[in-house]
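Let's sit down with a protein and look at its sequence and fold side by side. Please make up or recall a protein chain and show it to me in full. Label the sequence line and the structure token line clearly, so we can match residues to local backbone shapes. Go ahead whenever you are ready, and we will take it from there.
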Amino acid sequence: MDTLRIPHALESPTVVQNFSIRLLGRGSMTLPDGSAGYPPQLGNLALGAPNIKQNFDNISTNLIPSALNLSNQISSNTFGLHVGSAAMGIPLSLWLGGYDSSRVLGPVSSQPYFSDPCRIDLLDVGIGVDNGISPFPFVEKQGVLHQGNESISDSIQVTIEPLAPYLHLPQSACDAIASYLPVTYQNKYKLYFWNTEDPRYEPLVKSPSYLSFTFRATSLPQAELTIKVPFRLLNLTLQAPLIDRPTQYFPCQSPQADGMYTLGRAFLQAAFLGINWDQDNATWWLAQAPGPDTGRTPLQEQFADPFRGSTATWSDSWKGHWTPLSQKISTDSSTGSTTMTDAATPASGLSTGAKAGIGVGCAAAAALVAVAGLYFYRSRARARRATKMHLQQAAEEKRIKEGEELKGPQIPFMVEAADPEPVEMTHREMFQELPGSTPPQPPPKQR
């Protein structure tokens, strides 16, 4: 037993007595190529569970949100989360007992929460551009989820899970997306590396281009919800010990060991996730989150119907952080050379983002306010051939540019409210950094 001091963004901290921590004395991680393991970093935080009481090794206890709710420090056993992006200057937003409505754009899909994780039907994946000239040979491309895979009929069921690092989709879908990008599949790492010497690379990742994810949303009049993630936020970085030097990669990968299709932190950079753990009204919400050009003043709300969000547009929340193309990118198929040519027709499309890194489980019922959780990387996954590019690559892949590791915002453990109002976890006071989309670094380095 210990005492937990929970910092608050605006008010004095809350002190939680008899706080139980499970310590792991030994652990090892194996690199994807099967090389020797190294001690992992830890840092996952459970944000609740359907049952108020949790039992661990004959210990009956509460997770933090339910404990704060029972003590009347927050008005409901809920939380609202937008991971944000340290690299893009979007601070983490995590509220207990409510949510920050400035992190919610457009329609909000609500689904009942059962004993399973946050599952939803993914209808399609698309590619497009919000404004300017498209860096692709099209303005908008739909049907990418089904491309090259006749076994996918209407949809696939995916889990929204912040503990997962990547976009864990059917390999055919990852290959289809990659066929439109200057990337090369690296079987050793089971990831696609951006060809940073390709003249298309920089204009594409800085442009208002995006991946769109369309979900079945029966709670909405249009019965669909689309969330957009800019390629700017899917230009992630591998670092040691996985690789000798920083290397840019595109985070699409086949399912993890459990075989479930999962949209992890790479997706949640661009999405708002909220959960109400109340057993009589267990519900979870999904919505578009804004980009970096959004207000920094939190607008706290209680979860209620109707769901209140921001009046800002997603395009405006990004317009200061991307560079629309004024010229068409064209590739000479005989030489592989890429040039910029004048074009007059602007494209239309979408986008969104933030770089990932909070280990919060949507179905976090397995932890005693878990301070433990191992990110592991599978070894010896089945080999796959690299995808042939839709456009021939303009230049041979050479030296990979060094870049800053994508790290997710750090989070402290909780927050106090003087009254039972939503309370925000500050991003300024840190308990321990939570690893982002990049593999954990070897100890003893700590942030």
In short: Residues 332-421, 425-447 have pLDDT under 50 and may be disordered. The first helix runs from residue 64 to 70. The helical segments are 64-70, 171-178, 201-206, 265-268.
